[in-house]
Amino acid sequence: MQLQAGMDAPQFELPDADMNMFALAEHRGKKNIVLYFYPKDGTPGCTMEANEFSNLDDRFAKLDTLVVGVSRDECLSHAAFRDKYGLSVLLLSDTESAVCEQYGVLYDKDADGQKKVAVQRSTFVIDKCGKLRHALYGTHAHGHADEILKLIREMK
């Protein structure tokens, strides 16, 4: 099931690259959250997207917005990815795919004649009240961070 704008954002807790727990509920009333799901650390598209979000980190911060990336990679993979590219976005590890399922970003991918579950690149803008303002499935990596920054500005 795909989520839609106006719905309450599904609550979750996941570990970040440093194995500290991130709870969505702790940011309610304080920050907007850009929650983006991506397939895999270190791949070209995912690296481009993470770099573009990191490059705009100051602008998001000025708009009381925290950018959080989620993939099914382990915490150690996230730490290596973050450190290699100097990423400032928070990366969360969903190795059990529970949050990916909550947000409806998993799909069956045909890889070399084999069905494999993959993460569809998707982004959710959650306002300070915990409501989904935007639910974007099947996004493209390049230029996406700029598009999301415009959406956040329009929320003011």
List keywords for this structure.
156 residues; Glutaredoxin; 9 strands; 5 helices; single chain; 5-stranded mixed beta sheet; alpha/beta; two-stranded antiparallel sheet
Tell me what the structure shows:
With 156 residues, the chain is an alpha/beta fold. The chain has one domain: 3-Layer(aba) Sandwich (Glutaredoxin). Helix content is 29%, strand content 29%. The strands form three sheets. A five-stranded mixed sheet has the order 5-4-3-8-9. It has a two-stranded antiparallel sheet with strand order 1-2. It has a two-stranded antiparallel ribbon with strand order 6-7. Helix 3 links the parallel strand 4 and strand 5. The chain is globular. The two termini are 29 Å apart. The mean pLDDT is 95.
* Cα end-to-end separation: 29 Å
Output the structural class.
alpha/beta
Task: Please identify the top-level CATH class.
Answer: Alpha Beta
| Share in helix | 25-40%
Largest sheet: 5 strands, mixed
Number-wise, the strands total 9
Residue runs with pLDDT of under 50 for 5 or more positions:
none
Instruction: State Rg.
Output: 15 Å
For CATH, the homologous superfamily is named as: Glutaredoxin
Q: On the 0-100 scale, what is the average pLDDT?
A: 95
Write the CATH architecture name.
3-Layer(aba) Sandwich
Overall geometric form: globular
**How many separate domains make up the residues?**
1
Q: Tell me the strand percentage band.
A: 25-35%
Order of SSEs: EEEHHEHEHEEEEH
Provide the CATH topology: Glutaredoxin
- In spatial order, strands of the major sheet run 5-4-3-8-9
Number of H/I helices: 5
